[in-house]
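Two proteins, back to back. First:
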Amino acid sequence: MQKEKEALKQEFKEFYKQEIVPILKKYEKGRGMDVSTFKNFFIPFGLIFFFAFLSAYFGSLNNFLLAKLFLLSAFGSFVYIFIALSKSQNPNVKKTKTSSSVSYSFTVDLNYEKPLKEKLAQGFINIFGCKFSWTKELDKADDNKKIEDKLKTLNIFPKFGIIRFDDVITGLYNDVYIQIVELSTGLRLFDVICLTILLIPFWGMFSVASGKGNNGLAFFICVFFIIFMFFVLRIAKINLFNSSIKGLTVTFKFPKKFKGHTFIIEKAITSAKLHLKDIGKYQTVNLESPEFNEKFKVYSNDQIEARYLLTTAFMQRFEEIKMAFEAKYIRAEFKDGELNMLMGVDKDLFKMGSFFEESSYHTFLQVFEEIYSVLYLTTYFKLDENTGL
């Protein structure tokens, strides 16, 4: 590293005290008010739909007592929201008053972390003395497509349908070009919940139509439901049955030129659904370390170059990096003058804040450690030297 870690940590402490603390106080105050208002608004709002659905369902069964009870519960939830918003001191709650009515609206950005990173990310990067840009998600469709297109060419990356980018850090360190992308693929729990919620209206409409003996309408609802499920299953096939990824990709532009294509994947269930492209063109490489061979499969179309790249020192460093990031697995691919690494990491990396969690000194110290670990890879793998790995 250009600076020793202890010196860097001291700079971080000063940065936290002078830059982070004043910003954090303001944001934590606003976050606390938004969380309180969010709970007072969205939980009762969800209950309104739940009670209304139950009211319609029991009404279709001619159980009018329960139907009226749940309808009254829905109205009670609405009244609670109105009273809570009218008494709120949150500046994000807006009151609109006309001659005949009064209404309230509440706007909140659940991506609480984004404005924090917009203010603090560059300061973090400056601590390490490198030329980097750090964005929270990608704003340009072209940038998204470039990364997606590259990932699709890599054997270490599985097929994917839905892909989401979180932190993207790009720039030069020790005269080595680095791109760090935190990403995830496949359906999240939130996506599954949303799809499940979308099924509720079908059930409700079908129950009402059947209860009233309207077979034509019930048949139409069934047909529409089948079409809807066809598209849902198509999405699920791509995003559930292929390997989902949550983790980090790190790309290094190699100063050492190589012509071959070599990649390393783990011998574990996590690699079972990888679709290796043109695998017949590659040979299995057995390296000097029996322990490494037990844990990883190495393929290359150039045995000599693969052994030059994958030295004993590299193998040791490769496994240590996995431990440093507490990764479930680690993969690497040497291709087209680049080293691409993929680490499967469950936690949210480079996290500065969350809507539902308070940020503290420990939060930002963790970010410091993660950035240090990634940038240290240039020294760790000696990428800034013109000698072997």
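And the second protein:
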Amino acid sequence: MSREPTFVATALRVRDVGPVSFELRAGACLAVLGPSGSGKTTLLRALADLDPSDGDAQLDGVSRGAMPAPAWRRAVRYVAAESGWWEDRVRDHFADWGRAVPLLERLGLTAEAGDWPVARLSSGERQRLAFVRALAPDPRVLLLDEPTRSLDPAAAAAVEAMVGELLHGRCVVWVTPRRGAGRTGCAPVVAARRRRCGMIASITAVVPPMGDGPIDLSVADLAIGAALVVANAVLSLVLDLGIARRLLVSAARLVVQLVAVGYVLGLLFAASSAGWTALAATVMVLFAGQEVLARQERRLAGLWAYGLGTGAMFVASVLVTVFTLTVQVQPEPWYAARYSIPLLGMILGNAMTGVGLGLNALTARLHDQRAAVEAQLSLGATRTEATRRIVRAALRTALIPLVNRMAATGVVFLPGMMTGQILAGADPSVAIEYQMLITFLIAGGTALGAVTAVLAAMRRLTDDRHRLRLDRLADHEV
């Protein structure tokens, strides 16, 4: 199945302009060329939904009409040729002036510009400041109306270079009266088909992303891959492994869940809402808790069976994710779903495995080695001393798979995130940096979750009188 284009206009008409249709994928830039008065600005305003128009525009398959207008404009950011200002001082127009300063310095401005009165700004300064202002919070699409019109050659080159860097994961529509956007990697579309009044009559374009980009997969490609799962199920039947049905059900769940999550993520990314992001994260943790519960051969009794593992994963994954978002990645806003949800998913998925393995090993060993534990307790050992060997063994069981995976990464196999970035056209060195960061985060989250869960379960299966309380297991037999 082919991946849907990221930003699509379909038969867009506004006043005398149109119809305009194009498809842009992440990493693509469309340069609309045409003389003054041909409707280029009108087109951008329609795409930003600032002017009423016929036709439709979609972001990640979601129509602009299905999104609240503010959410649409946060994701599809319009930068006017003549920027607007509503406060007296420059910095008061920026959500985070500190984050804007490094970008402004690359465009020839300094941190002192924040204290300048707007009234003293030149047209070139206004244009550069407005461009950087549009980058926070992180937009999916940039609509640039002649962003270098008032700039000298050096400043124009700096803006074009920055746009080229911003193309990774974004789309850009750049209108200009001349072929001045070529250095950004934009695909030029000349508005040559014009009515006699000089307005744009039509534009039709399909623009691929910069670089090689990902290779689209067809339904047949996915079916061939799915045939391997069916073959595994047949093998299970032949060898009487008893997992054929479970294997096929799991594969079906995977397909349904990924299709559903793809749609939901598109909505979350466009909304950029702290509340919706928190809700999605909570749902992920709750489902992960159910998976941990399902993997326990000997479960704790009552709500502890579900609550302990879920709580440990929540503490570990959320703490590590929030730390990463606020200290290392630092998106704007910090809770942006495009960054927070994938990060949480990778950390939570691995923490789920570690917590599940650790809890299962702990409860099984305490049950099987009850006599040894109670013998130590009978000789005056504390519960910590009597269960130390079992706790250590449970934590090793939880963490050894992670240690082995880190040791083999890059030599025996390439991790999924790194492979996905490379297949999507990312530079291998950039993919490696992100993979190293994610691996370290996964290690920290998994260790924190496993230690929290195992120690909490040990405390639950003993009491303040240092007795072993296997009666707190759901399937305990006296």
